Amino acid sequence: MREPVTDAVWAARLPDVFAPRDVGYAAARVVATTSQVRESLVSRLHLVAVTAAGGVLVCRTDEGGMFLPGGTKEPGETLDALAHRELAEEAGAQLRSPLRRFAGYEATSSLPQPYRPHQPHPVAHWVYAVAKARVVGPPTCPPDAEQVVEVLALDPAEAVSRLAGPDPLHAGMLRLALAMGLVG
């Protein structure tokens, strides 16, 4: 029987991905993990959404930011429902396969209360999953959300490169998905 690959093994291979870091916009310290957590501990989900041609969907905002589609869980929302909603809102895409959760960040907030009342606090998990997806139209961005102006289907290595500056957390998780053989 093969031994499972642990966080320590992945951290040795990708030390910059697993190094603790502060995320200013969330007032949180995050640490990468491949441990599966209960859905009730998840506050956010982002997707490595892979097209039939093997491209990874990357969203670009009107302010120049780039990120993997995903976002904050609504009250009572399942991870599947969250994935469907965020893919439509941010990428104009539909899921074409089940989600495969592979890693995430354990986020410890320094705020006295959660970002939204229904979220776990002070420790929450920002989960990443791989799934097949298909772009079916333009993003349906709600007016109070970031405004996506372009959805790119990039070669996974190019997606890592393009995400590295604007969103190193997403770039790191995509690098981990590549190392795990989940994409590419």
Describe the structure.
With 184 residues, the chain is an alpha+beta fold. Helices cover 24% and strands 34% of the residues. Strands 1, 2, 3, 6, 7, 8 and 9 form a seven-stranded mixed sheet that branches. Strands 5-4-10 form a three-stranded antiparallel sheet. A hairpin with a 4-residue loop joins strand 4 (56-61) and strand 5 (66-67). The mean pLDDT is 95.
Shape: globular
Largest sheet: 7 strands, mixed
- Mean pLDDT across residues: 95
Radius of gyration computed on alpha carbons: 16 Å
Total strands: 10
Give the termini separation: 26 Å
Furnish the topology, listing elements before pairings.
Elements: H1 7-13, H2 15-18, E1 21-23, E2 28-33, E3 42-50, E4 56-61, E5 66-67, E6 70-72, H3 79-91, E7 93-95, E8 100-109, E9 123-135, E10 148-154, H4 156-164, H5 168-179
Parallel strand pairs: 3-9
Antiparallel strand pairs: 1-2, 2-8, 3-6, 4-5, 4-10, 7-9, 8-9
Helix pairs in contact: 4-5
